Protein 1
Amino acid sequence: MAAKKILIVGPSWVGDMVMAQALFITLRQRFADCEIDVLAPAWSLPILARMPEVRRGIAMPVGHGKLELGLRYSLARELAGQYQQAIVLPNSLKSALIPLLAGIPLRTGWRGEMRFGLLNDIRLLNKKRYPLMVQRFVALADSGTAPVPEHWPLPALQADTALAASLFRQLGMDAEQPLLALCPGAEFGPAKRWPERHFTSLAAHYIDQGWQVALFGSDNDCAVTTAIAAELSPDQAVHCHNLAGRTQLSEAVDILSAAAAVVSNDSGLMHIAAALARPLVVLYGSTSPTFTPPLSDRVRVLQLAVDCGPCFKRECPLAKDRGAMACLEQLGPQQAIAALASLLADEADLIAAH
């Protein structure tokens, strides 16, 4: 019997794509010889290349939120006749068009944006039954009648260690010195970003302990990472590497895989670090780990209980009145240092026990 071929219409955000690997792993567990292709934004192809369950990533030619029926139809014609099933992860109507136009016989997804007729294996989402996004992804691997998965496979990205070593050399980093990776950006908005001065204090502490620090982010995060590095002393700055805007996403994955520890806001890089099984401390502000937590056994989550949160706002609506964001301003660097020290101590104990 020929291998079952499945097309996944993937999500548009970095973290969601990382979490979707739990679905890919589940499908391979249930259909050992299945072949999985993922239709997704072009930026995500390097992430998909680091998921061994995925045969190939297919670049979505249409920008997020755009209709462009001609482009969708052209791609659908190319994909026609190749798949027995499509699983559509986004809930938008537009995301279900290509599987329909490609004539894929079985088209699975949550009901979402009135997609009757576009999907023929349509599921009604019970948010209480599936409170986590990863549960909602994994649930689409079954027939729709299976019980809620209490456990699911953790995403596990495979980094290119040889490329990581080469990148260390190119970027002037010391492969023998422990690396603390800091991820101070958040595309969602400033209400998810730990204050820059807190990141600077954290970086200075670990540099003084003999570590090197790397600041990760996209071009959009350059102002934030530059401000963090600028407040270090000259002696400390020598051991701080500002990588924002200097690395491709694939390169950031490989460098992160070599980090001794990671401290991050709730962001796509946080999910990548979790999927690389790095010791990870996550700082939550306006959002909550109750829907899209880092999927890892090697993580500490820090979040203050404040009367105004979590508010899920992109910008703090009370910052002007209070002079600061209470949820993140009051979450000080010493708390992050203590959490990371505890995590690393537990890691050392596990290693010693074995």
Protein 2
Amino acid sequence: MKALFNIRIALFTNAILFFLILLSCSGKRTSLLPTQAITYNQITRTVCKADNTQSYEVYLPTIYSNQKKWPVIFLFDSHGDGKFAVEHFKEAAERFGYVMIGSNNSKNGLQTLDHTLDILINDAQKAFSTDISRQYAAGFSGGGRVASYLAMKTGNIKGIITCGAGSPELNPQNISNRFDIYAIAGREDFNYDEVMGLSQQMDRTGWRYMTIGFDGGHEWPSANNMTNAVQWFQFNAMKDELIPKDEQLLKQELDSTMLRCENYLDKNRYIRAADECRIGIASFNGLLNVKKLNKKLEEIENLEGYRAEKQKEMQVKYEEQQLRKEFLESFTNRDLDWWTTELQNLANKTANEQDIAIRQMYKRVKGFLGIVCYSYTGQAITEKNEMLARKCIGIYEIVEPNNSDCFFYKAQLFDRKNKPREAADALKKAIAFGYKDMAKIKGTFSTMVLQLAL
């Protein structure tokens, strides 16, 4: 009787576990691996011995010891926030045993990037027991481009994760030392098409690459997404016989991929289902038999629903290109009243649109306008074109009312017009909205503005 009771309990437990697995596959690229509480180490700051103006944040997995060599990932945030970058990789560090190194100096517009990279890597290699045959790089936005640059520059980076940025300058035909590329972007990110375009750029080159979309904007992807990316590095290391094959992990992840695919098909989300098959094929080919995935992908691509969804995707992409073109041309030939009306129309369309793909497209257009405002405003201020700078700042404030760069530029404009109080107020807003480059602030503004603002 007791044995029968235990069997029933086991069956009930397995049923609940399977139900939870199905739920977990409804959106994120989650795994069939059991989720266990992870104990984390502290992130610590290290000042480089060869140059004390350079520093980085380091995370060592709890199993770290100097008795063996560990794979390492160098991380680059677009604003030089090494700790923020490392936070997204702690889970991956613990699950797979990686050292994470986040630069505090590498950031957008850095003129001494080569020096920073050389100092960072040399110091980290001396300070920690890392495996030079398994060095990787990852970054967000401009940091993603730094990761790509580092791989091309050194020739000894095994793979990169580029988030929110593609690698348009990368010509695979001219590079002798190949590296794996995992490119990921939010579906609301203005760089989404650039990242997804990596597939055409790398197709038929023999390079290993992956392009992944997630539901979000121009931002660091979640820790879960970053763990998936590092897991892809693990699979490739197995293919290269750098680490033993983990049969259990591979089988569990293959089953998880099939579950996600079926779940998307049940919801008539054909492109997402096909993407799961493609991701699985790229991940497991050479490690497992992927005939089942190839067959499922072929079946999906022959569905009328898939073809209709692809046609709609092309139409949305064309509309996005037209909107970008119209807005870009309007920076010079439309006044601020027109911009106010059109941007309100765009906001209304975004809020009221029921179709997720179209709504995400509108958000990409808005993000695109933000980066154009940043570029045009900076150029106008550099060229001392006050009229254009004022107009661009006016548009900028409507597009991104909480953008720190917008108010930094606004403060510059007031300072040049000898209006220290107005400049100080704008600078205070820039800082409140997250502007952190104190060296640039102190090197840009007059003494009076700094005294009033800081």
Protein 3
Amino acid sequence: MRIRQGLKNHEFSDSIQPTVNIETGTTWGYESLIRWDDDGTLRSPAVFLNRFREVIKDATLYEQVVDMRRRLTDRAASNDIGFLTFDIGLENLQSLRDAG
């Protein structure tokens, strides 16, 4: 129930970290990591991700997650970031065509 409420309250956001080739030190791209601001405590996906995947089977909440992802992807593209991955993979979303 808390995850559902957190999604409705827009408590989930993405943090971005670089993906670096440790041999050359060059940045290949970036990974988006979902985080939950749960009453002022920043929660790692390790705490909520399994349940989160179940919760987003609800069509309304699923659409919200796809929209979050689409906005982030658009911002990344507008900043010439060509490689962006997500800790919630496409296979975890219900509709690949809507995943952006």
Protein 4
Amino acid sequence: MSRALRGNRQISEPIRQLVQRTAQEMGYRPDPMLSALAQYRRSKGKLPIAAELAWINGWPDPAQLRSFHEFDLYWKGASDEADRNGFRLEEFVLSHTTSPARLEKILRARNISGILIPPAGGIALNWGNFRWDDFCIVRFGHSITTPRAHLVTSDQLTDGLIAFENIWKNGYRRIGLAISATSHTRFSAGYFFSQARRAPALSIPPLTVSEKGGGQALSQIDKWLRQHKPDAILTDLKAMGLWLAQLGRKVPGDLGLATLSVLDGNADAGIDQNSEEIGRAAVQLVISLINHNEFGIPEICRELLVEGRWVSGTTLPPK
């Protein structure tokens, strides 16, 4: 009966509807203290696997997704949290051999109702006529625009603020922001807030660069450095350290370098986005949606933000 009340898809739909309708007519309300006790008992030990959750990989080369340390930790956190709650996280590849329609049939046949959609490497996934009504969906970050479901991501605004403040504390004053031209992040908002509060007179216009680099990008960076003379750079560009070296600029001798991802940014000073916690939070959210019978595309999207932390490193020593 309790599984039917929670909308568990292992119970047939007619039985679920009958139990839920009867409970509503009788004025049933769950006891919050008993619910808390049940959750406590579940959290004390590992539950047997009762169902699966789907992790949808839409990368052209599926192995590339978890080659990024951030995304690999999404998986690890999500997988561990799923396992702790009696679910198994299973990867499904969306490709030319497994179309959205085919994937939907597989998920329905395996009675999978929870879907996690990790970043797709800047690719807009084509979901075709995938019917979302019977699924609970959580996406990782704003780069996934379809489906417009609830999302879990790093608290990028706060992380940008944390980064600027720690660079400032290390004695740097002309702090420049260099970001990818295809960036979907919101770190810049925190950076600009701190810059306006700390030193508006020292403001440096942000630099937007193609991740592909090349001669034009190097010329663009060189011009920006000469014109604005930053003493530190905050960046999401993995190759920035290499490009600075090609321009004859030494890190940290000539200027400090901090990254918005110490796991994937090729600098050891910057933001740790707590990616494993992001994965755990995503699974907790999708299980909550399943338990509350909240299927399909929501009318109002929720954003669950996970705050990062500052990591000190050799690429940005105190001045």
